[in-house]
Each structure stands twice: as structure tokens, then as C-alpha cells.
Amino acid sequence: MNQTQLLAQVKKMQTDMARAQEELASTVVTGTVAGGSVTIEMTCDQRVKSVKIAKEAIDPEDAETLEDLVTVAINDALQKANDTSQKRMASVTGGMRIPGLM
Questions:
Q1: What is the pTM of this model?
Q2: Domains: count for the chain
Q3: Is the CB of residue 53 less than 8 Å from the CB of residue 30?
Q4: By C-alpha distance, which of 91, 95, 94 is closest to 21?
Q5: Residue 98 falls inside a structural domain
Q6: What is the sign of the dihedral through the CA atoms of 40, 43, 47 and 49?
Q7: 3-state secondary structure of 24
Q8: Which of 48, 66, 89, 94 sits most deeply, having the most CB atoms within 10 A of its CB?
Q9: DSSP-assigned letter for residue 8
Q10: What is the tens place of the pLDDT at every residue in 12-63?
Q11: In the 3-class helix/strand/coil scheme, how is 35-97 assigned residue by residue?
């Protein structure tokens, strides 16, 4: 492969990565816990879009349980966002691990 072809391939990969990052910024995943008592919607660039808490999950006498449920739901959403991002970026990079992307 000559240098011109290599540069063209790198530019295409950069364009594809930018497109993938835009797609991930608008892709929403949902983290849930306790049968939907707490639901977190998050984009794959890890911005929380919404937090929904069912009324029955709110007990003024037991805030700690609700805090734990929110934590678990956020972690579930983060894991799904990371998994989705890794799969999408791997399709762009051909499986190469590029520092800072995954």
C-alpha cells in the first residue's frame, strides 16, 4: 500500500469515526432496576437524559434504598452505553484498539 492510499484510508476512518460518535451521541440506552422502579435514560456519550422513579419506590423513611436503586440503574445504563459504544467503534476501526476511543 502506498502513502497516498494509506492517507486516504486514514481520512475515511476519521470521517467514519466522527459519524459514529454523532450517532452514539443520539443513541439512547435505558438502565432499569427492580422491575422498572427506577429507570435511567442515557445517551451513549454518557449524558443522562431522564430519571424516572415509580411512586411506590419512594419511601420517606428509607431514602437509602432509593439511593441504591438509582445507583444500580445508572450503572446499568453506563454499562449498556459503553457496550454499545465499543461495538459501534469496533465496526469503524475494524477491531483495532485505539487509545481514547474505547
A1: 0.81
A2: 1
A3: no
A4: 91
A5: no
A6: negative
A7: helix
A8: 89
A9: H
A10: 888 999 999 999 999 999 999 999 999 999 999 999 999 999 999 999 999 9
A11: HHCEEEEEECCCCEEEEEECHHHCCCCCHHHHHHHHHHHHHHHHHHHHHHHHHHHHHHHCCCC
